[in-house]
Every structure is written in structure tokens, then in C-alpha cells.
């Protein structure tokens, strides 16, 4: 029997995770064993559960209890389900619920870098990518285009940010990922020690074309992508084995980092 709680007010402390905690508080609250994140929509929540994440609670429109979320509730019979009118839930969260269902889940300890890179031949390395939408889109492209792992420097947006998870369509639970030290503070060295050729996606004079056949022949590639707007720091570009660019037409100087990642992942696939 589901533990369903009908809401007449949004003041219940159990709802703090959905509205009254900042992203930093959600991520760091009693870290590491008590951190949580939010997944939206039944499809994404199913992928999170399949990946072994433990649910804390559900928040959903009442119609979904016997509708789109029925299988989720049956799968997690002891997890509390909070429900109310669409207007009440939107007043709580500040946004319309995607497909009417949210789930708070416990975070897992981060994977070790060696575990994530074991057997990998194509990895993406993100440095300073702070927009959650771009993070989600890059993860989705990585999953679709067979990138083995995604590594995030400390300057990146949290991959389990609510919007990043939503935009990724749950692929954040399918592609192995973990953190890596800042590139200038050992990140590139760790990749080289594991046999990766490091490629900085950058518009510099000595960039190789991404279509250069030598790149695709490399046994292990780390595709390094930088911040929206400014791109990679100069020291990071110099520290990589090669700078690589996507040839542009019509005077366009560059692509958005998420679009550039998809092109690079496809062109440099193993």
C-alpha cells in the first residue's frame, strides 16, 4: 500500500528538498552519504531506479498515482508520495512539473577515476561548463554516440542538477562519469598516465581539423571541452597534445559547446 500524503499546504519540512533548498544545499547537505538530487518524469525516474539510486520521496499530481507513476509507486511501496493540485505543486516548486512527477533520490559516493576509465577508449572532459542545459545535452550526446565516460572538473555544473538530469533524459544514469582535478592541476597528467591522447577543442591558429585521420586512429582519446563563451583556458590548450577545431562556414566562428560536443563525439568515434 502506497504512503500517500495529500497536501493542503506547502509548508511541510519534508517538501524542502523540492523547493526551499538551494542546489548547493541539496548537493552538500550532510555530504557525502546524505546528499540528494531531483529526477523529473516517470521515464527519467525509472532510469535512476534501474541504476540503483535509492528514492527518498515522490511529489506528483494526484492523477499520476493511478496513471503514469503507478508502476513507480508499486516498485517503491514504502516511499512517501506527496500529492496535491497542479496549482499547489507549481506554487511549491516554482515551475510546472515535467510529466507531473518528481522524485528525490539519494546520491551515491562518486566513482573512482580509475574505475570510470578502465577499458575506456573515448572520453569527454568538461572544464568550466556551468550551464545545466549544456551539461544535460552533452551527457545525452555522449550516451547516444558511444562515449565511454564523461569527466567533470571542479568548475563544472553538478551533473545531477535537476535541469541537467532532465535535459539529459536520464542518460546521466547510463554513461559512467566522475570528477577530475582541474586540468592545470593534474587532470591532464592523469589522462596521459592512462594512455589518452588529449584533444583541446579550441579555435587557435595551429588547430588540427577534427577530420584529421590521425585523430580517429588513436587508441584512446580524451576530448576536452571548455566553458560557454570563453572556451578553454590558454594553459589547458597548451597542455593538451593537440588543439582541434570544427571547420566553419558562412563566417560562423564556433558552435555552442553542446553542439560542438555532438559533432566531436561522432567524428572521433572509435
Quick structural overview:
The chain is an alpha/beta fold. It has 12 helices and 12 strands.
The assembly state of the depicted protein chains is single chain
Residue share in β-strands: 15-25%
Strand ordering within the main sheet? 8-7-6-11-9-12-10
Work out the number of β strands: 12
Q: What Rg is obtained from the alpha carbons, in whole angstroms?
A: 20 Å
Low-confidence runs (pLDDT<50, min 5 residues)?
none
Give the terminus-to-terminus CA distance.
49 Å
Helix/strand-derived category reads alpha/beta
Q: How much helix, percentage-wise, in residues? A: 25-40%
Shape: elongated
Count of helical regions? 12
Characterization of this structure:
This protein is of the alpha/beta class and 270 residues long. It has helices spanning 16-19, 23-28, 42-50, 70-75, 86-93, 113-117, 132-144, 162-167, 187-193, 213-217, 234-239, 257-267, and strands at residues 3-6, 36-40, 55-61, 80-84, 101-106, 122-126, 149-152, 177-179, 197-201, 208-209, 221-225, 242-245. The strands form two sheets. The chain has a seven-stranded parallel beta sheet. It has a five-stranded mixed beta sheet with strand order 1-4-3-5-2. α7 (132-144) links the parallel β6 (122-126) and β7 (149-152). The longest helix is centred in the middle third of the chain and has 13 residues, at 132-144.
List the helices and strands and how they pair.
Blueprint lengths: L2 E4 L9 H4 L3 H6 L7 E5 L1 H9 L4 E7 L8 H6 L4 E5 L1 H8 L7 E6 L6 H5 L4 E5 L5 H13 L4 E4 L9 H6 L9 E3 L7 H7 L3 E5 L6 E2 L3 H5 L3 E5 L8 H6 L2 E4 L11 H11 L3
Parallel strand pairs: 1-4, 3-4, 6-7, 6-11, 7-8, 9-11, 9-12, 10-12
Antiparallel strand pairs: 2-5, 3-5
Helix pairs in contact: 7-12
